[in-house]
Amino acid sequence: MIDETIKNLPVLVTGASGYIASWIVKYLLEEGYTVHATVRDPSKQSSVGHLLKIAQQAKGTLKLFKADLLTEGSYAEAMQGCGVVMHTASPFVLDGFTDANEALVRPALEGTRNVLNSVNQCETVKRVVLTSSVAAIYGDNEDILRVPSGIFTEDHWNVTSSVSHNPYQYSKVVAEREAWKMQGNQSRWDLVTINPSMVFGPSLTSGSLSASIDTLVQMGDGRLRMGVPKLILGIVDVREVAKAHILAAFTPQAKGRHILSNTELTMLQIGKILRKQYGNKYPFPFMEAPKFVVWAVGPLMGPVTRDFIKRNVGLPLKFDNRRSRELGVKYRPAEETFIEHFQQVIDDGLLKKK
Ligand code: NAP
């Protein structure tokens, strides 16, 4: 278990430019921590501009480092003297690649190994907080049919994903398993994982490629106007996910996995929340397409396979978020998350102002 002295040491945040990590860095800086932030390219304004601006107004100190998941030893310099390592960097893309292993699995798995090998050599590190995902808990909604209680908890593991079926989910489960294996081989540092469902809420950066952001853009750009699949998503606000990382880092007794999920909503329900706020200014989805239609045309319209549709559309999904609430996370109403996120998508120019 960690002690209070850990609070005086710098905190390493990997992938600091990301959608979730940017909020983590902001909260850490506001609380006065020194943050060692790694990005692939510290000279890229779209990656670091917003972080530098946040740092100017905050109590804490930001130090930028260059690091890549696939370069061995890349995180060692940034980790020097840190008490906590928050490992968030991992590709979160659902399309735009041809080789899923290279695009997702290798960076997630080798990157986790790479970061934790450096943790093993860095005596000051006492705790690692890993940004895992509910994707490490389940692969497809239909997996819930094998859970007698009908609710996913931290005891469950994704055993149905592979490189060819749900490669992103696979990348997350192999990375988290590797992290637990490496943690179990030593006793100096402990591991706490944060396992968010689909994250929404305002972004501090318009440079992120996170699939979270594109999902909300789709809601308003007309791609889903003709109907959405009846797909139930676990959803959580990015600010709650960021706060959970900080609670996980500095709560001495924190341990194990934590599902971060506020509630479950269908895509149509998300559309309804947005329509209530914005009326018909944007072509929000207003109906659900029958599963056979989604099965027939879905793969022609986006990066979704018939196998995914079969195993997810129309199937239930439920998460137990008790452990995160025990950690101290307080969930805001989902309406707030979606309205603030959609407004920010408009303000960032990702959708036309109407
Ligand atoms: P994001 O904005 O795309 O952030 C991902 C970060 O990973 C980027 O900042 C990127 O850094 C970094 N990265 C990717 N490939 C890298 C590489 N080869 N070397 C070094 N850094 C690399 O996505 P996000 O949504 O914030 O995701 C952050 C974490 O949360 C990921 O682990 C993701 O799996 C997890 N997660 C996300 C969600 C969600 O709904 N968003 C849900 C559950 C879990 P650069 O800027 O330097 O390129």
What does this structure look like?
- There is one protein chain.
- By secondary structure, this protein is α/β, with parallel strands linked by helices.
- It is built from twelve helices and ten strands.
- A seven-stranded parallel sheet has the order 3-2-1-4-5-6-9, sandwiched between helices.
- α8 packs across α12.
- The termini are far apart.
- 46% of the residues are buried.
- The model has no long low-confidence stretch (mean pLDDT 94).
- It binds NADP nicotinamide-adenine-dinucleotide phosphate.
- NADP nicotinamide-adenine-dinucleotide phosphate binds next to α1 and β7.
- The site of NADP nicotinamide-adenine-dinucleotide phosphate has 28 residues, from α1 and β7.
Q: How are the strands of the biggest sheet laid out side by side?
A: 3-2-1-4-5-6-9
Strand/helix succession? EHEHEHEHEHEEHEHEEHHHHH
Shape: globular
Number of strands: 10
Determine the strand fraction and express it as a percent band.
5-15%
Q: What are the bound molecules?
A: NADP nicotinamide-adenine-dinucleotide phosphate
Termini separation: 53 Å
Gyration radius (Cα, Å) is: 20 Å
Number of helices: 12
Q: Structural class of the secondary elements?
A: alpha/beta
Low-confidence stretches: none
Helix proportion range: 40-55%
Main sheet: strands, sense, barrel: 7 strands, parallel
Mean pLDDT: 94
